[in-house]
UniProtKB/TrEMBL annotation:
<feature type="compositionally biased region" description="Polar residues">
    <location>
        <begin position="407"/>
        <end position="422"/>
    </location>
</feature>
<keyword id="KW-0472">Membrane</keyword>
<feature type="transmembrane region" description="Helical">
    <location>
        <begin position="161"/>
        <end position="184"/>
    </location>
</feature>
<dbReference type="Pfam" id="PF07690">
    <property type="entry name" value="MFS_1"/>
</dbReference>
<keyword id="KW-0812">Transmembrane</keyword>
<protein>
    <submittedName>
        <fullName>MFS transporter</fullName>
    </submittedName>
</protein>
<feature type="transmembrane region" description="Helical">
    <location>
        <begin position="12"/>
        <end position="30"/>
    </location>
</feature>
<feature type="compositionally biased region" description="Low complexity">
    <location>
        <begin position="394"/>
        <end position="406"/>
    </location>
</feature>
<dbReference type="GO" id="GO:0022857">
    <property type="term" value="F:transmembrane transporter activity"/>
</dbReference>
<dbReference type="GO" id="GO:0005886">
    <property type="term" value="C:plasma membrane"/>
</dbReference>
<dbReference type="InterPro" id="IPR011701">
    <property type="entry name" value="MFS"/>
</dbReference>
<feature type="transmembrane region" description="Helical">
    <location>
        <begin position="247"/>
        <end position="266"/>
    </location>
</feature>
<feature type="transmembrane region" description="Helical">
    <location>
        <begin position="205"/>
        <end position="227"/>
    </location>
</feature>
<keyword id="KW-1003">Cell membrane</keyword>
<feature type="transmembrane region" description="Helical">
    <location>
        <begin position="70"/>
        <end position="91"/>
    </location>
</feature>
<feature type="region of interest" description="Disordered">
    <location>
        <begin position="394"/>
        <end position="422"/>
    </location>
</feature>
<feature type="transmembrane region" description="Helical">
    <location>
        <begin position="340"/>
        <end position="360"/>
    </location>
</feature>
């Protein structure tokens, strides 16, 4: 496990620090120009919309091609994009449109990489290794998030686009190299008889075949839009309370630290509690944390509650990912993650509409209790649905994912290049 894990986690580290810092810098650099707030908001909306529309196509590509090759090519694309941006600004012809386009590329490609990493982990590791590698991944992800945030506080005031572009190009290049050096035991190769668009159409049939199971997963996915919702709501709430901006930084650090603790403990927790119980009760705890946030106005208490929120948010997400490693067909993993991602993106967009509505009516303080009640009812729904989950969704009732797959769909081979299907 160590031989393939060290280069793989190195790739995730450089990927996270590159995209995290560059995606943080781009809006900030655009906002340095007066009256660019609306443009930055519309850019974020365009990124979200394009990511949503592209997901069915890219998730199908994940099920048709080498997951390792996709990870490598995403990093090559990001490195090239950052390098081109740097060259454009070096020539003195840069504009906010260049920055907006590069943000779109990084945004969409980062979502592709996220889904690909899930499928790659399921395919390249054995079932007894899933919990341990998930813990490692969480520690690396939160370390890069905290690191990018801490470094960003210093560098945003000192660096320009040339420095950020050069850093992103170098870091993404190192990520591509690390992924390229990762040993890969490819197990999924779809039949050439199945066309690309036929596989896209199959996505609906995948979800309708097990509606209770995927409904359970969809509710669990609410934890991501809740996170992004709080990321927008809390700064607005703190601004209305006229508290220091440093509390916003502390909020982000508290969330990262809570998630980091989850990464350190997850292998022990998953070894003692079933995945579905972790997910449903983590969501229930998140609902109570949100309701508790609605009853406090001191930023210290919100930051302390955020520590617990970060822990249980990550716990729910990692348990869901691991459960899918054991239960979802490897050959369908890209499309399943894509469908779940589209649902999360849709809810995320609706949550931003709610924030705009509350801000318009000067009722932002009700944002916590509204989403808290929604999550509470969703959690109760999960508990009810867990009693109807089919036995086929129990890892102990299914063949191990790393057993010899159907030869019609997959075979074992070492892979290092993208195989084009016609």
């Amino acid at each position: 496990m160590r031989n393939k894990t060290t280069p793989y986690l190195s790739g995730r580290f450089f990927d996270g620090i590159s995209s995290g810092l560059f995606m943080m810098a781009l809006p900030w650099l655009m906002l340095k120009t007066p009256d660019m707030g609306t443009f930055v908001a519309l850019t974020a909306l365009a990124c979200t919309s394009n990511s949503f529309l592209c997901t069915p196509f890219f998730s199908t590509l994940i099920d048709r091609h080498s997951r390792k090759a996709i990870l490598v090519w995403v990093q090559v694309l990001q490195s090239s994009t950052a390098a081109v941006v740097g060259i454009i600004y070096l020539l003195g012809v840069g504009s906010h449109w260049v920055l907006a386009f590069s943000q779109l590329v990084f945004w969409v490609s980062s979502n592709i990489a996220w889904n690909t990493n899930n499928a790659f982990t399921q395919e390249n590791y054995r079932s007894h290794e899933y919990a341990k590698i998930s813990g490692y991944q969480e520690v690396v992800m939160q370390t890069t998030t905290l690191g990018a945030g801490a470094v960003g506080i210093i560098l945003l005031e000192q660096w320009g686009i040339l420095e950020f572009a050069a850093f992103a190009a170098l870091a993404s290049g190192l990520a591509a190299l690390s992924y390229g050096l990762t040993p890969y035991n490819r197990q999924v190769k779809p039949s050439s008889k199945v066309s690309f668009f036929s596989q896209i159409k199959e996505s609906k049939a995948i979800f309708t075949a097990e509606p209770v199971f995927y409904g359970f997963l969809l509710i669990s996915c609410l934890s991501y839009p809740i996170l992004t919702y709080l990321g927008k709501l809390i700064p607005i709430w703190f601004a209305e309370l006229d508290v220091s901006g440093s509390w916003v930084a502390l909020y982000n650090m508290a969330f990262g630290l809570g998630s980091l603790v989850t990464g350190l403990l997850i292998s022990r927790i998953i070894g003692r509690i079933s995945h579905e119980n972790i997910m449903q009760y983590s969501m229930l705890v998140l609902a109570f944390i949100l309701l508790a946030m609605s009853g406090v106005v001191q930023p210290l208490y919100i930051v302390l509650l955020t520590l617990s929120f970060g822990f249980f948010n990550a716990l729910n997400r990692i348990a869901r990912t691991n459960w899918m490693h054991h239960t979802v067909d490897m050959a369908q993993r890209g499309r399943v993650d894509g469908g779940l991602g589209m649902f999360a993106t849709l809810v995320q967009s609706l949550s931003y509409v709610l924030i705009a509505f509350l801000a318009h009516f000067d009722a932002i303080e009700y944002g916590f209790v509204i989403v808290g009640v929604i999550v509470l009812f969703a959690s109760i729904g999960m508990i009810a649905m867990s009693k109807k989950l089919p036995l086929s969704c129990n890892p102990n009732q299914k063949p191990k994912p790393n057993q010899e797959p159907n030869l019609d769909q997959s075979h074992q081979q070492t892979d290092s290049a993208l195989t084009t299907q016609h």
